[in-house]
Amino acid sequence: MIARESEPVFPNVGISQIGVAIPEHYMKVAEIAKLRGLDPNFATKGLGLLEARIPYETSIEDLIVKAVQHIDYQDVKRFYVGTESDSDMSKPLAVTALNKKLGLTVVPVQSKFACLEGVQALLLACEYSVSHTGKPAIAIAADRSIYHETDPEAEITSGCAAVAMRVEMNPELLALDYPHIGQYAEDIDDFRIPLRTAPFPEVDGPLTKPAFLKCIKWAVADWKIENPGFGPILDRLDYFVIHVPFSKMVEWHMAMFWHHEKFGEEERLTIEDCLENPDLWDEYKKTIDETRKMPEFREFFAQKVRPGLRYNSYTGNCYTASIFISLIAVLEQIGKKQELGMAAYGSGAGSLILRGRAMRSGFQSNLKEQIEKKGKELTPEQYQEWRERTLKEIRATPLS
To answer: Helix, strand, or coil here: 175?
Structure first.
């Protein structure tokens, strides 16, 4: 990829190593659907879900340790952690993972903005490395998602994973253009986890889709302002990596994005209209569905988006880690000097957009191996027992 004269020099900082850990236990999403009286085809064919990874005999902290142990960490003094699975209002779970279980003495930096915060941690790690004369940092994204059984359409998206990334100058895998991000945030209660309902979130289903699409739409608009003269995004970027609540959400978003880039804003109905009145979503989605059928879009999606969805259907929505599960899949296929765009989203709500450039080809993680081992499939009884145990453990945690 040859930079244009109007573009700034690409920063020489980014990801050199990635470690990932998923629970060995899982539940087939079709079985969760049947358990809750849903049509299994709604989960598999409708949303593109296959398995939900369940931390049945492990914890988020254990998974963080395993992910970190897959990369070089002994010389690192700064760890940035994004998660929304913390049940303590004072002590970050990163202390248990890094200081107790891994035996480090560093003070971890843990923060939250729903599913968005893993990418925020990555940006902070880049800034640290550049501002500290090339010292390495580690960015971590780790979560498990669990929903109340009275909201089965959300429950079938459950998942779990932890991803750890070594960030440094002269990166071996992916350089990141961290100074020229696109961003957008708005106070939207599409998803929240109040103390009174924890660990179960309150999900405004009709609001989640337009909130997701609007925030990314306006973050892309901001990215264009930060990157004038970049040219047609659809053509110049080789891959697109997006937060994956479920695979069909990515397809809906990319159809909207592709349509806007090709034909401009829809005049009769906008995503902003849907956010003000979620009942308009079905009407708005007609344009999305029409776009999804177009041969040109289908070719674009198959070449530049679907490669990043290789693993997400087998991990479920692991919140902050979901976009990095997708990134791993792309890095296993991308060619040297090819570029990707990342679109992160976090409910509440906000989005971050950034660009990366591959420093090598031929990367291979062990995620495929972890998935193909299959692990241990939970029975419905074990799944229910895990849910009840998790609720009791979190409700029993004293607020600091």
So the answer is: strand
Residue 36 is classified by DSSP as T
Amino acid symbol at 101? K
What is the phi/psi pair of residue 46, to 5°? Answer: -75, -45
Low-confidence ranges of the chain (pLDDT < 50): 1-5, 399-400
Written as one string, the DSSP assignment of 181-247 is: -EEEE----SEE--TTTTTSPEE-HHHHHHHHHHHHHHHHHHHHHHSTT---HHHH-SEEEE--SSH
Give the span between the Cα atoms of 278 and 275, in whole angstroms: 6
Compute the CA torsion angle 115, 119, 120, 126 (nearest 10 deg). 170
Q: Is the pTM value of this prediction over 0.90?
A: yes
No. of H helices and E strands in the chain? 16, 15
Each residue's pLDDT tens digit, 216-245? 999 999 999 999 989 899 999 999 999 999
Q: What are phi and psi of 140, to 5 degrees?
A: -125, 135
Domains of the chain in sequence order = 13-395 (3.40.47.10)
b vs e for 291-317, b when ≥16 Cβ sit within 10 Å of the residue's Cβ? Answer: bbeeeebeebbeebbbbbbbbbbbbbb
d(CA 161, CA 142): 6
Q: What are the CA-CA distances from residue 261 to residues 160, 161, 233 (Å)? A: 34, 33, 8
CA-to-CA distance for 25 and 160, rounded, in angstroms? Answer: 10
